[in-house]
């Protein structure tokens, strides 16, 4: 019988349990997948802790994996038995050796992209795609600020934005992470533990500020991110690694220069299959051309997912992390 990581209550990494699970035959519009690699993402921590309440308990965990189609249900035309596929989508349950999945959420993998790379890039890569191409379409000559520039999304955003002709400013927590970000296209890494990043942003931009900030940190960086924007700039708050942003008085946006703010999710930007396929194709193209180098820098066996969560929350990881099946 296949096994999966399940939670029976929300809490710390110790709530992650390795348990046998029953995986039935796919129903209409479903596929059964045998996973080969599972992606670890910070959103998994949000569901584990209850910041994002799981739909019910006990619950699976995880939104991203690569694998092989073992069976298809009635009406499935998107993929066929034997196809190598990847997904980055609800429902929760990617931390599993096998599972059922809606067929319209699954994308065929090109032969040139291996399963481990795919599982380490899909959710973060689609996030980088919508941030740079949809939420604020970055163009040549733009200067942007990305937090956690040495993280999974951060390294992809740095490379992709540089390819688009932008100047990239990124915050990191150490000199080692600064060098990693610089090697992936970050023009101006800022070590936030010893420099106030809004001051450095103003210095780099000759006092103007940036047109867009991509902030996945949340509570600890929110106001300073606003202070890094130029008038009419866009604050993109797409994560809460330090905790949720407190309630906001909209007058603050007025006082700081008629700023815009958005709280996007990859799930909204890929809700329609045509958008999912467009984002996936754009991602596959830049990976196959070598524009994006996916840094899978950590790996744990799936059964040891708790150890991976501990490292992620302690900010001991860089790039992408994969759980092997």
TrEMBL record:
<comment type="similarity">
    <text>Belongs to the zinc-containing alcohol dehydrogenase family. Quinone oxidoreductase subfamily.</text>
</comment>
<feature type="domain" description="Enoyl reductase (ER)">
    <location>
        <begin position="11"/>
        <end position="323"/>
    </location>
</feature>
<dbReference type="GO" id="GO:0008270">
    <property type="term" value="F:zinc ion binding"/>
</dbReference>
<dbReference type="GO" id="GO:0003960">
    <property type="term" value="F:quinone reductase (NADPH) activity"/>
</dbReference>
<keyword id="KW-0521">NADP</keyword>
<protein>
    <recommendedName>
        <fullName>NADPH:quinone reductase</fullName>
        <ecNumber>1.6.5.5</ecNumber>
    </recommendedName>
</protein>
<dbReference type="GO" id="GO:0005829">
    <property type="term" value="C:cytosol"/>
</dbReference>
<dbReference type="InterPro" id="IPR036291">
    <property type="entry name" value="NAD(P)-bd_dom_sf"/>
</dbReference>
<dbReference type="Pfam" id="PF00107">
    <property type="entry name" value="ADH_zinc_N"/>
</dbReference>
<keyword id="KW-0560">Oxidoreductase</keyword>
<dbReference type="GO" id="GO:0070402">
    <property type="term" value="F:NADPH binding"/>
</dbReference>
<dbReference type="InterPro" id="IPR013149">
    <property type="entry name" value="ADH-like_C"/>
</dbReference>
<dbReference type="Pfam" id="PF08240">
    <property type="entry name" value="ADH_N"/>
</dbReference>
<dbReference type="InterPro" id="IPR047618">
    <property type="entry name" value="QOR-like"/>
</dbReference>
<dbReference type="InterPro" id="IPR011032">
    <property type="entry name" value="GroES-like_sf"/>
</dbReference>
<dbReference type="InterPro" id="IPR020843">
    <property type="entry name" value="ER"/>
</dbReference>
<dbReference type="InterPro" id="IPR013154">
    <property type="entry name" value="ADH-like_N"/>
</dbReference>
<dbReference type="InterPro" id="IPR002364">
    <property type="entry name" value="Quin_OxRdtase/zeta-crystal_CS"/>
</dbReference>
<dbReference type="GO" id="GO:0035925">
    <property type="term" value="F:mRNA 3'-UTR AU-rich region binding"/>
</dbReference>
């Amino acid at each position: 019988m296949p096994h999966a990581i399940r939670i029976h209550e929300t809490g710390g990494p110790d709530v992650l349990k390795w348990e046998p699970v029953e995986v039935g035959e796919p129903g209409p519009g479903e596929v059964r997948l045998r996973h080969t690699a599972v992606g670890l993402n910070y959103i998994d921590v949000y569901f584990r802790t209850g910041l994002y309440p799981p739909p019910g308990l006990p619950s699976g965990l995880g939104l991203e994996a690569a694998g092989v189609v073992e069976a298809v249900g009635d009406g499935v035309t998107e993929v066929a038995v034997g196809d190598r596929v990847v997904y980055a989508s609800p429902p929760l349950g990617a931390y599993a050796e096998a599972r059922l999945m809606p067929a319209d959420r699954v994308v065929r993998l090109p032969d040139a992209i291996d399963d481990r790379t795919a599982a380490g890039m899909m959710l973060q890569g689609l996030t980088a795609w919508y941030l740079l191409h949809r939420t604020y379409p970055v163009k040549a000559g733009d200067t942007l600020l990305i937090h956690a520039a040495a993280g999974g999304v951060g390294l992809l955003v740095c490379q992709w934005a540089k390819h688009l002709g932008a100047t990239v400013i990124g915050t990191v927590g150490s000199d080692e992470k600064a060098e990693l970000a610089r090697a992936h296209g970050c023009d101006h890494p800022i070590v936030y533990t010893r420099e106030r990043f809004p001051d450095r942003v103003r210095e780099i931009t000759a006092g103007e500020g940036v047109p867009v900030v991509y902030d996945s940190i949340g509570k600890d960086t929110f106001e300073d991110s606003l202070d890094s924007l130029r008038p009419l700039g866009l604050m993109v708050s797409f994560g809460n690694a330090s905790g949720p942003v407190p309630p906001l008085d909209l007058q603050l946006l007025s006082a700081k220069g008629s700023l815009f703010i958005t709280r996007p999710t990859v799930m909204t930007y890929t809700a329609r299959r045509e958008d999912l396929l467009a984002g996936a194709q754009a991602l596959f193209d830049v990976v196959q051309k070598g524009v994006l180098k996916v840094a899978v820098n950590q790996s744990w066996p799936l059964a040891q997912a708790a150890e991976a969560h501990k490292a992620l929350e302690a900010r001991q990881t860089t790039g992408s992390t994969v759980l092997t099946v």
